[in-house]
């Protein structure tokens, strides 16, 4: 749930800036988004050696010259939330709707408390994913972070990103006298806004569920022509107060320990809420949306993930509630968000194979919907 590479991450967390309050337009490469205040032990060096988290938490600046067929842009939406755009190179679909491609809206993980859309942890997976999936682009949301911004702040930010997509789709000039940033024009030219998919890692997977539910509760036409065609929950952070069998039997991993689950959710959930709430309980999450229209969902889990059992239980509870959920478990010695460990993806045969399978499964799901 906390992509930091250290079991000690939750202790001493200060926060990250929530990226609020910018005017509309493309952000400068040097950031311009406010500083992030991670716990010092995430960034310091020990005995001249880099802390294990440093390669993952490094900020990747945006770039407009293609790398691997993708450009990256930081955009201030003017709606209280900033986004990072991953745009694959290719001909714009200006005239033929049949050539337009789906859009992904991404929510990063971090237990609602840490990490940024610009971290290498996400960049090294989602930049190449934008090219592999044949999408118009991936919109990665800079989420407000707890404890300063507990839930539902991140849900509000995710919904605000959808409202921004609505404005872009409609051609609403939200940038005042300025023109749309070039990157936004590229997205608009290529996007099929009737095929928007939510995707999220770890606690970002919870946000896929929660933001889809918020959209489902909207009055008809609020997001039109934006339509949620599906959601992809990658190792979501579902949990209960009572530990599951997988939490008791599976070992901690680089990106998730029992301490992280407890401390990050204590900081990230609304004041007074516990894990037995609609934000994290598999059964209560499903019960809360029983009467809410939800898009088809793809739920990905990993065999050695501490949270594997509540993740799978979420899928079952949603099916009992009448929702369409496809559950796929990556088998073998792979654990929480293994696909984000770009070192293991390159050096470990099983991690590489399971990551390839995961991407293929996501692609099939998107193509089917």
State the major sheet: 10 strands, mixed
Name the helix and strand elements from N-terminus to C-terminus, one letter apiece: EEEHEEEEHEHHEHEHHHEHEHH
Count helical runs: 11
Which value, in Å, is the CA radius of gyration?
Answer: 19 Å
**What general form does the structure show?**
globular
Q: What structural class do you assign from the helix and strand content?
A: alpha/beta
Would you tell me the overall average pLDDT?
87
Query: How many beta-strand runs?
Result: 12
Instruction: State which percent range the strand residues make up.
Output: 15-25%
Distance between the termini: 28 Å
Helix content bin: 25-40%
**Please, what is the oligomeric state?**
single chain
Uncertain stretches = 2-24, 28-49
Record the SSE blueprint.
Elements: E1 25-26, E2 45-46, E3 49-50, H1 54-57, E4 63-67, E5 70-76, E6 82-88, E7 101-107, H2 120-132, E8 137-141, H3 153-170, H4 182-190, E9 191-201, H5 203-217, E10 228-234, H6 245-249, H7 258-268, H8 282-288, E11 297-302, H9 308-320, E12 325-330, H10 342-347, H11 349-368
Parallel strand pairs: 7-8, 7-9, 9-10, 10-11, 11-12
Antiparallel strand pairs: 1-5, 2-3, 4-5, 5-6, 6-8
Helix pairs in contact: 3-5, 8-9
């Amino acid at each position: 749930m906390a992509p930091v590479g250290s079991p000690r991450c939750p202790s001493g967390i200060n926060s990250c800036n929530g990226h609020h309050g910018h005017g509309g337009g493309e952000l400068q490469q040097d950031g311009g988004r406010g500083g992030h205040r991670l716990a010092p032990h995430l960034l310091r060096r020990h005995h001249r050696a880099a802390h294990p988290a440093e390669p993952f938490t490094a900020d990747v600046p945006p770039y407009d010259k293609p790398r691997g067929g993708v450009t990256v842009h930081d955009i201030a939406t003017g709606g209280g939330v900033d986004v990072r755009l991953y745009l694959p190179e290719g001909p714009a679909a200006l005239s033929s709707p049949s050539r337009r491609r789906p859009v992904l809206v991404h929510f990063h993980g971090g237990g609602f408390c840490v990490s940024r859309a610009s971290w290498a942890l996400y960049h090294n997976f989602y930049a190449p994913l934008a090219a592999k999936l044949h999408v118009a682009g991936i919109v990665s949301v800079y989420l407000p972070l707890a404890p300063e911004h507990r839930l539902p702040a991140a849900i509000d930010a995710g919904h605000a990103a959808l409202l921004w997509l609505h404005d872009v789709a409609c051609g609403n000039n939200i940038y005042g006298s300025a023109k749309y940033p070039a990157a936004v024009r590229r997205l608009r030219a290529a996007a099929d806004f009737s095929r928007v998919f939510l995707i999220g890692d770890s606690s970002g997977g919870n946000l896929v569920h929660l933001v889809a539910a918020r959209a489902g509760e909207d009055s008809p036409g609020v997001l039109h022509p934006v339509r949620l065609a599906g959601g992809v929950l990658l190792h979501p952070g579902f949990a209960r107060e009572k530990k599951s069998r997988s939490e008791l039997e599976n070992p901690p991993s680089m990106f998730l320990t029992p301490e992280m689950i407890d401390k990050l959710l204590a900081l990230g959930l609304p004041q007074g809420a516990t894990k037995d709430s609609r934000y994290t309980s598999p059964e209560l999450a499903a019960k809360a949306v029983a009467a809410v229209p939800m898009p088809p969902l793809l739920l990905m889990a990993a065999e050695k993930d501490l949270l594997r059992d509540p993740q799978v239980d979420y899928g079952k509870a949603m099916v009992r509630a009448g929702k369409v959920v496809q559950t796929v478990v990556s088998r073998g010695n792979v654990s929480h968000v293994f696909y984000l460990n770009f070192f293991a993806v390159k050096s470990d045969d099983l991690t590489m194979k399971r990551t390839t399978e995961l991407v293929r499964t996501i692609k099939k799901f998107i193509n089917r919907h």
